[in-house]
């Protein structure tokens, strides 16, 4: 299953924001941008023909990528001005061969801009670097992979030209990855820590380790089902385990504590399981039904993070109940039953 996010799909079609963003993506360029600062290495170096050709090659490489819908690069301006200076002859839509000509064309272009307009959003004051904007429509993981391919191209063809991509899109794509990975790691660590605590509470390594099975398996099963049906989950996945795990652990503790109480009362393993079902069985499926139905309310939300969270937690709770009823009892009897 792919752990990724696409913030332009956070809201469904009932919201104007979603229909507007879909229109922009389908008919204009898009909303996800990767920003690069292309460094020439010296003051005034952006009019060096060699630098312009290298920057233009990088921009052309990006235009050939399937995820990219638009690239705005400074060499395009220089090629267009050079063509204008030669009577709009298409043959002159290219980088000037002489740096002096490129510098004069840039000066003429800057002087021709309307009052109040400038190129400060495209070139720096020292004219040592230019900005290149790449518009790409893809989930967060693919955007990170796209920048990774760009870094490989730069390392091979233009070392030192640019660093990693920047911009809000890059920040959010990496933020989503960091949140998902850190939350999943923390949840797994919490599961392991709680299991160690249960070893102390139950005064048994066997039962403490056995509690891992009904705690881990429901989350794994729900993600497996979601991966089969959908294949992608984002920020909500990192919250699902933390929310569901607290409820799952409660059910496991209730079941195992009543089981051990029955065992200490002198009953066999199978008798202890039956006694446990009589005492907490009804309560477990009742609370699971109420909580699952409550979280399913979130599934009707038009906000994807909330809807996926509610649906995944509800699925996880149902799987947890099945694990407590169908997996935990035979597991307890297997590790604690009388040897025949």
Give an overview in words.
- By secondary structure, this protein is mostly helical.
- It folds into 2 domains: 32-166, no CATH class; 172-336, Multidrug efflux transporter AcrB transmembrane fold (Up-down Bundle).
- Helices cover 65% and strands 7% of the residues.
- The protein has helices spanning 16-27, 49-63, 74-84, 99-112, 140-157, 168-202, 205-210, 212-229, 235-264, 269-296, 304-336; strands spanning 2-3, 33-39, 68-72, 129-136, 232-233.
- The strands form 2 sheets. The protein has a 3-stranded antiparallel sheet.
- The protein is elongated.
Outline of the structure:
This protein has helices at 16-27, 49-63, 74-84, 99-112, 140-157, 168-202, 205-210, 212-229, 235-264, 269-296, 304-336; strands spanning 2-3, 33-39, 68-72, 129-136, 232-233.
Task: Please write out the topology.
Elements lengths: L1 E2 L12 H12 L5 E7 L9 H15 L4 E5 L1 H11 L14 H14 L16 E8 L3 H18 L10 H35 L2 H6 L1 H18 L2 E2 L1 H30 L4 H28 L7 H33 L4
Parallel strand pairs: 1-5
Antiparallel strand pairs: 2-4, 3-4
Helix pairs in contact: 2-3, 2-5, 5-6, 6-9, 8-9, 8-11, 9-10, 9-11, 10-11
Q: Specify the biggest β-sheet.
A: 3 strands, antiparallel
Number of domains: 2
Mind telling me which CATH architecture of the largest domain this is? Up-down Bundle
Class computed from helices, strands and strand pairing: mainly alpha
Radius of gyration over alpha carbons?
Answer: 30 Å
Order of helices and strands: EHEHEHHEHHHHEHHH
- Reported by name, the CATH topology of the largest domain is Multidrug efflux transporter AcrB transmembrane fold
CATH superfamily of the largest domain: Multidrug efflux transporter AcrB transmembrane domain
According to DSSP, the number of beta strands is 5
Low-confidence stretches: none
How would you sum up the global shape? elongated
Number of helices: 11
Helix content: 55-70%
Q: In whole angstroms, how far apart are the ends?
A: 44 Å
